[in-house]
Amino acid sequence: MTLDQTQFRPASAHPAHSTVADTMDAAEPQVWEDMTVEVALSVMAAARTGHLVVCDEDGMCTGLVTRDRLTAVRDGSGYTDRIRLRDVADVIGPFASPLATRAEAERAMRCRRLGAPPVVDGHGNALGVVALSR
């Protein structure tokens, strides 16, 4: 083997040492927490996504909703068109740090039975969504 064929992998390339930032999906689309369930389902369909990051009026991440959750709410007997995303968010803090290891995120997701928690910076801004299937 010649020197130019040698490939070096960074320490973070090993799944056990990679960070959440290395494995997250972009936090798009982001929606406001006062959006209705019907509008959120329409946004999901248009964006072809299964989840939405929910933010407050200051743009801080407050949660995440999934298509399954919104469909269950809409199809439930207590549904009204006044139900807002803030009332039905699937994941409500604490959120993942981009510096957390992938192993830490997997443990937290199993313990809390989370599907895909948002990743936020130190100011509460959504950076992405944990995507551990990579």
TrEMBL record:
Residues 24-82 form the CBS domain. CDD domains: CBS_pair_SF. InterPro entries: CBS_dom, CBS_dom_sf, Diverse_CBS-Domain. Keywords: CBS domain. Residues 1-22 are annotated as: Disordered. PANTHER family: CBS DOMAIN-CONTAINING PROTEIN CBSX3, MITOCHONDRIAL, REGULATORY PROTEIN. This is CBS domain-containing protein. It comes from Streptomyces canarius.
